[in-house]
Amino acid sequence: MGYRTPPGALSPRAALPQAGARSGRDAGPRAPPTEPGARRRKCSPAAVRRAGSSWPAGGHLARLAAAPAPWCAAPGGPRRPELGLGAAGEHAEGRAERAPRACAQPPCLWWRKPSSRRSQAFLQMCNLPIKVVCRANAEYMSPSGKVPFIHVGNQVVSELGPIVQFVKAKGHSLSDGLDEVQKAEMKAYMELVNNMLLTAELYLQWCDEATVGEITHARYGSPYPWPLNHILAYQKQWEVKRKMKAIGWGNKTLDQVLEDVDQCCQALSQRLGTQPYFFNKQPTELDALVFGHLYTILTTQLTNDELSEKVKNYSNLLAFCRRIEQHYFEDRGKGSSSIRSS
Amino acid sequence: SCSARWHRALSLNVLLQTLFQAYAKFSGAPLKVSVVDNTWRGSRGDVPILTTEDNIVSQPAKILNFLRKQKYNADYELSAKQGADTLAYIALLEEKLLPAVLHTFWVESDNYFTVTKPWFASRIPFPLSLILPGRMSKGALNRIILTRGEPPLYHLREVEAQIYRDAKECLNLLSNRLGTSQFFFGDSPSTLDAYVFGFLAPLYKVRFPKVQLQEHLKQLSNLCRFCDDILNSYFRLSVGDG
User: Which of A104, A135, B12, B125 could form a disulfide with A83 if both were Cys (CB 3.0 to 4.6 A apart)?
Assistant: First the structure.
């Protein structure tokens, strides 16, 4: 069918996943493993531990491989957020085996992946213990090629949808208390968020020339040597533009995209009203999803602030994000760049 | 009063045309559908196009906005929350149901060659009738692959299986939401009803050789009743293009 396999790790400095960490996909050519004496950079993952868990069976902690938290100080300058992983079964911390690359660019604030934030929020809402680690080639270890993914016992599950179903199969679900009509509504709102916010984020990253030139190209190409960094960045941009054209966003201007985001936020704000969560007192998958996206929009600095301004117009959405951040993230002893300071 | 001419719709716009006709009926806008032989201009894919005395509006969302500004609004009675729900359900339809409907009409070869292609080819002038249907078919397949054909789905068969699963789930959700009411929001029809009708009516009424989605729809009796009610009340003369 002509699906492109992701670019193999050509640099010998890229980390290599060992056997057992993958389920399914072969990602193409691999780099030889690094020698034991290779320089290691310690990545400070945002680790969240909770004592006294009974999930999953067997007592293993689930490991959430995600984008690095923004406070991960990268000595080598801007890094690609998707990091790699060492062997399964090895202790996760301190195994980022990719040497830092000297980079002459000023430290730019990269786009934090909202997907990891919302999966994290979801798992924490379920009161499940997770440890978040960041690795250089997490994308290649994931069975679907996307981060984040969770590694639980022998299983690897990626992306929010399958993670939700996996967790449900283990007996934890946030939406059990909803009736059929409410479940339909929840799914509809999740699609709205995916349709509007996710596509708008993608558009802003790859189709807005200012952002592309200043931030995205550099960030996307940073793990690779010249000229691969440019080639891959342009290839990705071409792919995204092709997809945008197929769904009818190809001719949209930035203003139209921002208007769509505004409409989406208005709908979410109207739905939320004055309630603490979307479905009254208990958080659901929808809350995790909305939080992930809004948090990313509010805390990432881009060339212009219009996107976050649109969200800030709705005070109940801001309060919602703040509440979830406080309740599920700050209270667990993690420092974070709060929404207030952005 | 506002009088407008419609350019005859193409491809996925069978749905949109039904949608707009329904919306127009619900809101009372005096619209006249006429076949205008500007297919050459419309063949860039900009249809449907709404033309009034002063301006030309394309794209479904803009057309609906235009009609609303002209005070043909089917949503006066809705609360803010119901308006938000409308947007959400429309997104659900476009994400989950549309790929399968496109596939049923334009990609499934039995359906395409026996029903869709002859029907469209008969309504557009030669030699476009040789070129356009094929282009629309490729466009539909392209859209499905680009939006849904991502890892771990590597074969077209797997993508197809997934989109039909999603479409059936979407129909179930719509059925759950509709329940026993006559329309989605109370007793009078609204934009969401027009959208759902626009998607379901062609699926419900067109006789296809390969009918898996149609079969599933026919099992959901309240959705069938919904379509029949609207057809009988608002489209009394004929099924139209369905």
Answer: A135
